[in-house]
UniProtKB/TrEMBL annotation:
Sequence positions that bind ATP: 514-518, 533-542
Protein name: ATP-dependent (S)-NAD(P)H-hydrate dehydratase
Keywords: ATP-binding, Coiled coil, Lyase, NAD, NADP, Nucleotide-binding, Phosphoprotein
Biased composition (Polar residues): 170-179
Ranges in a coiled coil: 197-224
Reactions that this protein is recorded to catalyse: (6S)-NADPHX + ATP = ADP + phosphate + NADPH + H(+); (6S)-NADHX + ATP = ADP + phosphate + NADH + H(+)
Residues binding (6S)-NADPHX, per UniProt: G421, N474, F475, M476, E477, F478, T479, R480, D543
Biological function: Catalyzes the dehydration of the S-form of NAD(P)HX at the expense of ATP, which is converted to ADP. Together with NAD(P)HX epimerase, which catalyzes the epimerization of the S- and R-forms, the enzyme allows the repair of both epimers of NAD(P)HX, a damaged form of NAD(P)H that is a result of enzymatic or heat-dependent hydration.
Gene that produces this protein: LOC113108926
Cofactor(s) the protein needs: Mg(2+)
The keyword Membrane appears for this protein: no
Stretch forming the signal peptide: none
Length: 615
């Protein structure tokens, strides 16, 4: 889902930051280096931006980057003179970070690279041109007098749809007229005279001030337009929900007794040593499916049109899912280096809970990640570290600059698991929220579990609509989320329907409702994993699931779409992780029966993985 439709030349700050994050990636910069033609690189940039929900063409990305570089180089040049101009480039710090290495190279290349106005010129040539434009020569003549600086605004008024906002300040319109680079012969002489007595710095300062003012106006208007759009979308969304609920009620009303859900829980498939003391947790609601290994649910019974449509999209054969998971698993070859098969981050671990982040992190390693990082509080770190020398433990979650400390690692992480053992302290939840926001900008798959779901119940917008987000609630957490989103008690007779409704309300986020059967849905398709486990419900099984899901999610999102037959990568990953968790539970139970603990299950990851995905 696109969070942001194309808006021509107007770029919001969020969109620009996302673009800069992608453009600043090492692989993008390397691809741009020394490539005369860069259209394929910008195609890739536009694709990645699209994955974050921003719809931009490769050309728009390239022009935006070019414009940002121009602003940066001008500000940098100005800054060299009086230390003030850098404040006038909104994204100065970001550009500085990205270009600090490149600019040296580019400066050396100035003489060797051809300068031209061609928009398809290669990256180095663009930078050279930008540097030259920003450069003021020794005679005191500013080069931008010769080549008036192009702003990112178009040469015509901007169409704004929100009422009362169609006219722009005259200053802004006059600025747009400086857009086309005029040749020195066609430049009006008058303007040169008018500026002749002004000092160079004053002139530049004036120009930049006007640019900033114009830019601010655009952003203000754009923000108003977006707010209006958001409001409209929210209204539409709540109308849809109302419809869905009404249809659900109608559907419940017309269901015949033979198709009504049966509330009687099915017994566990594993024989229990003492039937008088059942080991199974009481189940909630309908549990009436064949004892198949897996089930790809496609509803054919009468349902309201909305539900019917949603389910009709998801029809795949049961046996197709495990092979798809297999297709995502990277081969073990001697050609790879450490880290390539997965660097997973776990956000969680506080004074009370040190086991949960450990279980999640070590499970990620055992499934096949190369590196597993835990970001926890200061007092939890030595404890977690003492469990295993294999984990990289960062005691930063409660530090004053926690977000910056964690953000430093984001470019290196392939996926993030937020919540195991996080606790519910306000400050920790705030830091977790901020790091989720920043990870979203980078397109990192984010799995939210345990206390992370507490945060989502309080502030759903933190993850709502993010297509690489996966929620893994147990029944309690699910109820909390459902009621927060729907403002009414959960009807626990039909888990699948409720899970679908919640996924839709969360913007088609993938949801794994854990329980006697694990229900996986993105609101359109539904998978159910009822692989035989056991009746043993020791704490920490959910952590094993979320940690391994971090790895499967990274693999699934890095696989080409045809490897997973076009299926949503989150669904494939979730199916892999739930099958594995249940298989571990089953194997551990065979060895340890009632004493089975999560550590015993973790011991089984290797053979369970082999059995499910490599045999
Ligand atoms: N070794 C460690 O360090 C571990 C640490 N952990 C960490 O602990 C933190 C808190 O997590 P949490 O799940 O205990 O908290 P919360 O959501 O308040 O639920 C508790 C309440 O919900 C209920 N309940 C639970 N499941 C249910 C179900 N399926 N169906 C129905 N009811 C269910 C249950 O009700 P009861 O049966 O007790 O009446 C109970 O009252 C979190 O950070 C987590 O990661 C764990 O990972 C374990 C290993
Ligand atoms: N009633 C059940 N029958 C069989 N398996 C179950 C049942 N409930 C949970 N499971 C298995 O345990 C896994 C974890 O679910 P659980 O409800 O224990 O999560 P959790 O409460 O979040 O765990 P944690 O203790 O780590 O917080 C599920 O994915 C499923 O495989």
């Amino acid at each position: 889902m696109l969070v942001n439709a194309t808006r021509g030349f107007l770029w919001s700050d969020m969109e620009t930051r996302a673009l800069l994050n992608i453009w600043g990636e090492h692989d993008v910069q390397t691809a741009l280096d020394g490539n005369f033609r860069n259209s394929h690189v910008y195609r890739d940039v536009a694709n990645r931006l699209c994955e974050l929900g921003f719809d931009r063409t490769p050309d728009q990305c390239r022009i935006r980057v070019k414009s940002l570089k121009r602003q940066y180089f001008q500000a940098k040049e100005g800054s060299r003179k009086n230390g003030q101009y850098h404040k006038m480039c909104k994204f100065y710090d970001e550009m500085e970070r990205i270009l600090s290495n490149r600019s040296l190279l580019e400066r050396q290349d100035i003489d060797s690279v051809a300068v031209g106005g061609d928009e398809t010129m290669d990256e180095d040539a663009e930078s050279t041109e930008l540097l030259q434009e920003a450069h003021m020569d020794g005679s005191g003549e500013c080069s931008f007098m010769e080549h008036p600086v192009k702003t990112e605004y178009p040469p015509c008024p901007i169409p704004v749809t929100v009422g009362g906002m169609s006219s722009f300040p005259t200053k802004q319109i006059s600025l747009t007229k400086t857009n086309p680079p005029a040749s020195s012969s066609s430049r009006p002489r008058r303007s040169k005279k008018r500026f002749a007595n002004m000092s160079l710095e004053k002139l530049m300062e004036k120009f930049l001030e006007q640019s900033m003012e114009a830019e601010d106006n655009f952003y203000r208007l754009e923000q108003q337009r977006l707010q209006a759009e958001d409001k409209r979308r929210e209204e539409e969304h709540s109308r849809e929900l109302q419809m869905l609920q009404m249809l659900g009620q109608i559907f419940n009303g017309i269901r015949t007794p033979s198709t009504a859900p049966q509330a009687t829980p099915q017994p566990s498939c594993i024989p229990q040593t003492n039937p008088a003391v059942p080991l199974t947790r009481p189940t909630f609601g309908n549990r009436n499916h064949p004892p198949a290994l897996t089930e790809f649910v496609s509803r054919s019974q009468p349902a309201g049109p909305v539900i019917e449509r949603s389910f009709s999209l998801g029809t795949a054969a049961v046996d197709n899912v495990i092979p798809l998971v297999r297709n995502t698993i990277p081969p073990l070859t001697s050609k790879k280096h450490k880290g390539q098969d997965g660097r997973i981050g776990i956000i969680g671990g506080c004074q009370e809970y040190t086991g949960a982040p450990f279980f999640a992190a070590i499970s990620a390693l055992k499934v096949g990640a190369d590196l597993s990082h835990v970001f926890c509080t200061k007092d939890a770190a030595p404890v977690i570290k003492s469990y295993s020398p294999e984990l990289i433990v960062h005691p930063v979650l409660d530090s004053p600059n926690a977000v910056e400390e964690m953000e430093k690692w984001l470019p290196r992480l392939h996926s993030l698991v937020v919540g195991p053992g996080l606790g519910r302290e306000e400050m920790l939840l705030k830091n977790a929220k901020e790091i989720i926001e920043r990870s979203k900008l980078r397109g990192i798959p984010i799995i939210i579990d345990a206390d992370g779901l507490w945060l989502v119940a309080k502030e759903p917008s933190v993850i709502q609509g993010y297509q690489r987000g996966i929620l893994t609630p147990n029944f309690m957490e699910f109820t909390r989320l459902y009621e927060a989103m729907h403002h009414e008690p959960l009807d626990s007779t039909d888990h699948k329907r409720s899970a679908q409704q919640l996924s839709i309300a969360m913007g088609h986020l993938t949801l794994v409702l854990k329980g006697e059967e694990d229900i996986i849905t993105d609101g359109k398709n539904m998978l159910s994993c009822s692989q035989e486990g056991s009746g043993r419900r020791c704490g920490g099984q959910g952590d094993l699931l979320s940690g391994s899901l971090g790895v499967f999610a990274h693999w699934a999102f890095s696989s080409p779409p045809d490897a997973i037959k076009g299926m949503n990568p989150s669904l494939v990953a979730a199916f892999g992780a739930t099958s594995l968790t249940r298989q571990c539970n089953r194997q551990a139970f065979h060895k340890h029966s009632r004493s089975t603990s999560t550590s015993d299950m973790i011991q089984e990851i290797s053979s369970a993985f082999k059995k499910l995905f490599e045999s």
